[in-house]
Amino acid sequence: MNADDARHPFDRAIALEPQDHERWLGHTSPAYANMVGPYGGISAAQALQVVMQHPQRLGEPTALTVNFCAALADGPFTAIARPLRTNRSTQHWLVELQQQGETQLSATVFTALRRDTWGSDELRKPAVPAPAQCPQAPARGVAWLERYEMRFVEGSLPTEWDGEDHGSSLTRLWLRDAPPRPLDHASLTALSDAFFPRIWRRRAMRVPIGTVTMTVYFHADAAQLHRVGSGYLLGQAQAQGYRRGYFDQSAQLWSEAGDLLATSHQLVYYKE
Amino acid sequence: MNADDARHPFDRAIALEPQDHERWLGHTSPAYANMVGPYGGISAAQALQVVMQHPQRLGEPTALTVNFCAALADGPFTAIARPLRTNRSTQHWLVELQQQGETQLSATVFTALRRDTWGSDELRKPAVPAPAQCPQAPARGVAWLERYEMRFVEGSLPTEWDGEDHGSSLTRLWLRDAPPRPLDHASLTALSDAFFPRIWRRRAMRVPIGTVTMTVYFHADAAQLHRVGSGYLLGQAQAQGYRRGYFDQSAQLWSEAGDLLATSHQLVYYKE
Questions:
Q1: Residue A248: which of B106, B116, B217 has the nearest Cβ?
Q2: Which residues in chain A are closer than 8 Å to B271, comparing Cβ atoms?
Q3: Across the interface, do B69 and A84 touch by the CB < 8 Å criterion?
Q4: B3-57: pLDDT as tens digits
Q5: Residues forming beta bridges with residue A108, ordered by sequence position
Q6: What is the DSSP letter of A241?
Q7: How far apart are CA B238 and CA B134, in angstroms?
Q8: Distance (Å) from the C-alpha of residue A7 to the closest C-alpha of chain B?
Q9: How far apart are CA B26 and CA B15, in angstroms?
Q10: How far is B235 from B128, CA to CA, in rounded Å?
Q11: Which of A49, A84, A46, A35 lies closest to A68 in space, CA to CA?
C-alpha cells in the first residue's frame, strides 16, 4: 500500500493477490481497524471478495454466512475459496481466511443467476427524517468508524453509561461509506455489520462483546446497487434475545428510495 | 430400520453409523419425506447431529447455518464433520452431507461452553390463546407434516389458492413433535424449518419453492430444553423481502412458559 494509491480505502482493504488457483493473499487494513484487530465487517467483505473475483463464480451473491473463528492478527492472511457445489444457475462456496495455517474465519457464500419475478418488500422502510435533518455522529477515535458517515435517527450510543435498562435496543440510522463510494455487494456486506452491539444500547453498559457469526441475505442485485450509487442507506437493528453469554441482532438496510437491499442477522458473544 | 424399533421416528431419522474418525453413514427418512426428497428440517437436524455425537465436540450448539446445495436423493448419505477451529471455550465446525462423492448439504456449526450472565428476551412471546383453544391442523398427506402437531393461531395455509395478495405473511402457531418427544437441539433445529413458505401465505399462490440456506441461533441450552420437555412451542414466522427469485423469512420459537428458545432465518428460492 502506498500513499499515492488513489483507490478508495475500501477497495484497498479488500484487494487480493492470487497465489494459486484457489489461494489469494490479503492483508488486514489499518483504515478499518477496530479497537483490537480488524472491524468484522471488513473481514466479512474480504471473505465475500474472494468469491466475487474468483474466475469460477456463477451469478451474484445472494446469501453469505461468515463465522469469526478467532481474532485475525494485523497483517497478511491467506484466503481460500472452493465451490462446494455448482448447479445450473446457483453455486455454493466455502471460504476460509487463514493465518499461520489456522482458520481465523470461515464463510459460506451462495451465488445465483437471478431472474425477474413477482417481488415485494414486506418489511417497509420506516418513516424517518431525511439524512440532512439528522446530525452526523462525531468521530470516536476508532479507525473503522471514520470510514462511515453515520446519522442517527434514534437509538444512538448511550451518552451516559449508567447501566440503566433501556428496554429496547432498536437503532435507526442513515449511513454510507466515508468518503462516499458506489455501493456494491462487498461494501453492503461491511455495512451490514456497522451497527454497534445491541447490548450496549439495551443496558447502557459497555460489556466486552464479539460477533461470532453473521449472515447477510442480499435482496438487491448489482444493477440495483448501482442505481443506489453512493447514496445514504437507512439501517435498522434490534436484538431478539440475550441468554448465557450470547445475543442475536437482526438488521435491515434500505435505500433512501425505500428499497430493501439486505437483511442481516448476527450472534454476538457478551460477558457479564 | 425394522418395525420393532421402539425409538421415536425422529431418533431413527437422525441416527448415524461411524465409518472412520470423521465420516458417518446416515439415511434419509421416509417418516420425514417431503413431496420430493426429505423435509429440509430433518436434513438440518442430521447435519447438527453429526456434531452432537462427535467425540471432539466442545460445549453446546449455539449457532447453525445449513446450506441446501442440491436435493438429497432418498437413501444413504455420508456425513463428514471437521472442527475448523477449537478455542478454549468455543468451537467452529464444518459439516458436509455427501452422496456419490458430491456435496448435497453443507453446514457450519458453532458450539460453546455457556456461562451465566445477565439475560433478557427482548422479543416477547405474543399474547395468544392456549394450544387447546387452537384447532389442530388436519393431516395433509405429506409424511413430514404427520410428524408435527400444528395448531394455528393465525396465518394458516390459505384455504383458497386464489392469488389474492394478503399483504402480510405472518403466521403464529403452536407446534410440537408427533408423537410428543422431549425437546433437544436437534429437534429444535427441525422445528425451526416447520413454517410453510411465507410466499404461499402472502400470495395465496402455490409457487415452486426451495430453501437455500437456513440459520438457527439457539438461545436455550440443553438444561432449558430439558425443562420444556415435550410441551408445545409457539412459533412465529414472517418474510421481510421478496425479490428476483429469492425471499427471506425470519422465525422465532418460544416455550409455552414464554422463553425464547431459538431464532431462525432462511432464504428461499421461488419461481414466478
A1: B217
A2: 117
A3: yes
A4: 568 999 999 999 999 999 889 999 999 999 999 899 999 999 999 999 999 999 9
A5: A65, A94
A6: E
A7: 20
A8: 32
A9: 7
A10: 11
A11: A46
The list of chain A residues with pLDDT below 70 reads 1-4
Q: Are B166 and B148 in contact (CB under 8 A)?
A: no
Sequence-separated (6 or more) residues with CB below 8 Å from residue B45: B10, B13, B14, B186, B187, B189, B190
Residue A32 three-state SS: helix
Q: Give the dihedral sign, CA B42/B46/B47/B53.
A: positive
Contacts of B263 in chain A (CB under 8 A): 240-241, 248, 250, 265
Neighbours of B76 (CB within 10 A): 11
> B218 is written with which cell numbers?
439457539
Q: Which grid coordinates belong to A179?
A: 468518503
Q: Give the span between the Cα atoms of A13 and A49, in whole angstroms.
A: 10
Nearest-by-Cβ selection for A244 from B116, B168, B213: B116
Spatial contact of B185 and B14, defined as CB atoms under 8 Å apart: no
Structure confidence at residue A21 (pLDDT): 86
Phi, psi of A201 (to 5 degrees): -70, -50
Residue B180's alpha-carbon distances to A23, A199, B148, B203, in angstroms, are 49, 36, 9, 32
DSSP string, A100-112: TTEEEEEEEEEEE
CA distance B213 to B231: 28
Cell triple for A207: 460489556
What is the interface pTM, i.e. ipTM, of the complex? Answer: 0.97
Q: Do A85 and B62 touch (CB under 8 A)?
A: no
**Exposure string over A67-89, b if 16+ CB within 10 A, otherwise e:** bbbbbbeeeebbbbbebbbbeee
Question: Residue A144 is inside which H or E element, if any?
Answer: helix A143-146
Strand, helix or coil for residue A169 = coil
Contacts of residue B107, Cβ cutoff 8 Å, sequence gap at least 6: B44, B47, B48, B64, B65, B66, B67, B93, B94, B95, B96
Q: Which three cell numbers stand for residue A198?
A: 445491541
For residue range B156-167, list pLDDT tens digits in order: 999 999 999 999
What nine digits make up the cell of B61?
A: 450448539
Q: Which residues of A106-126 are buried (b: 16+ CB within 10 A; e: fewer)?
A: bbbbbbbbbeebbbbbbbebe
